[in-house]
Specification:
By secondary structure, the protein is of the alpha/beta class. About 45% of the residues lie in helices and about 15% in strands. Strands 1, 2, 3, 4, 5, 8, 9, 10, 11 and 12 form a ten-stranded parallel sheet that branches. Strands 6-7 form a two-stranded antiparallel ribbon. β9, α7 and β10 form a beta-alpha-beta unit. The longest helix has 26 residues.
């Protein structure tokens, strides 16, 4: 099982000091956080994609390429790549380039984002969000898997004898996760292609997450990719930890109360009860995270949101120390004990390449 962190890249005032970091400070902080993630033994760093204040992650592949040059093992991912408003040709080429630079340590999470105005900013209609996601991804898959593509669709100009460059590393496309909070059509899309499904459940009750993942698993089996419990599932989560739970709650409360997304809404206690947010001791985080399996079954990737709501970099790095030293080792051991042998691990470039080579050998034997 893979454990990691994802960032939404918000630039938020620290409510305890009144200080707002500059964009430059926030971008450099995200890089430092990614390097810390590898240092403490996490598997994945993922960044979102936004094109509006107060967010700074407008060019994920630029940031991930910079981080790739300073890391050795960390899987570099997006937590949202806007499949609706990005040109599939540009996505295909950007991520293939990133693959080469990172030695294959790359995957992609497709999503539609949570900012409605982004559609007209990039010349699209929000009312076509689902059709755009379906058509653009169908083209993207072909661009990665076919050397020469002829294509015509509804939302962009046709392609004639087009070759995206560079070609994917080792002829293996990056593994794709389809991220969705509320859209069954996206769970269906992930199942149809046999891709991963990531439910970023940080704002949603467990019952909703359970329904969405169940739908994906059922349709994954329907399309013949394997049994339902072999489908590739990822979850989001939010944590804030201190040795004593009372200290964690006391320290995190002002950040929660003033956060741009959920500040002024339900209380910290009510929100923690209704969603995966866990504010407390490391053991409480371990127990809560292990309980996710009860709703979604055995899953392959757990990403935590930790650098948001104005938390200072020093505090985030402290949180990563706790996560890497006290929480993740226990989670790895406990999840490994529970996982049946037939349930696969999260795909990596190495595992996808091995599968490709095995298929090629079978084809040679069949000849």
């Amino acid at each position: 099982m893979q454990f990691g962190i994802f960032s939404v890249s918000d630039v938020t005032t620290d409510p305890t000091t009144g200080r707002t970091p500059t964009e430059a400070e926030r971008i450099q902080a995200m890089v430092r956080i990614a390097l810390k993630a590898e240092e403490v033994g996490l598997d994945v760093f993922a960044t979102g994609e936004h094109h509006n204040p107060p967010f700074v992650a407008s060019s994920p592949t630029t940031m991930l390429g910079y981080i790739a040059a300073q890391t050795k093992d960390l899987v570099l991912s997006t937590s949202t790549t806007l499949i609706t408003t990005n040109d599939p040709v540009k996505i295909a080429e950007d991520f293939a380039m990133l693959q080469h630079l990172a030695g294959g340590r790359v995957d992609v999470m497709m999503g539609r984002g949570n900012t409605g105005p982004v559609y007209p900013w990039f010349g699209q209609d929000i009312r076509q969000g689902i059709p755009l996601a379906i058509e653009n991804y169908a083209l993207l898959r072909r661009l990665w898997r076919e050397d020469v593509v002829d294509w015509e669709g509804k939302f962009r100009t046709p392609l004639q004898s087009f070759t995206a460059t560079p070609r994917p590393l080792d002829g293996v496309a990056p593994f794709v996760w389809h991220g969705s909070i509320r859209s069954p059509e996206i769970a269906e899309q992930a199942a149809y292609y046999g891709d991963g499904f990531f439910h970023n459940n940080i704002f949603w009750p467990a019952e909703h997450t359970k329904r969405m993942v169940r739908l994906y698993r059922q349709r994954y089996e329907h399309y013949g990719h394997g049994k339902a419990d072999q489908a590739i599932v990822g979850l989001g989560g939010q944590v804030f930890m201190r040795k004593n739970s009372q200290d964690a709650v006391r320290e995190f409360r002002p950040y929660f109360d003033n956060a741009p997304v959920y500040g002024g809404g339900p209380s910290l206690e009510d929100f923690s009860q209704a969603t995966p947010l866990t504010v407390g001791s490391p053991q409480q985080v371990i127990d809560r995270t292990l309980s996710f399996r009860e709703n979604v079954g055995d899953y392959q990737r757990q990403l935590f949101l930790m650098d948001h709501a104005g938390l200072p970099l020093k505090t985030v790095l402290e949180q990563l120390d706790i996560l890497g030293e006290e929480v993740v080792p226990v989670l790895r051991e406990e999840f490994a004990k529970l996982k049946p042998a037939h349930v696969p691990d999260a795909p990596t470039h190495q595992s996808l390449l091995a599968a490709k080579q095995q298929d090629e050998r079978k084809q040679e034997v069949a000849k």
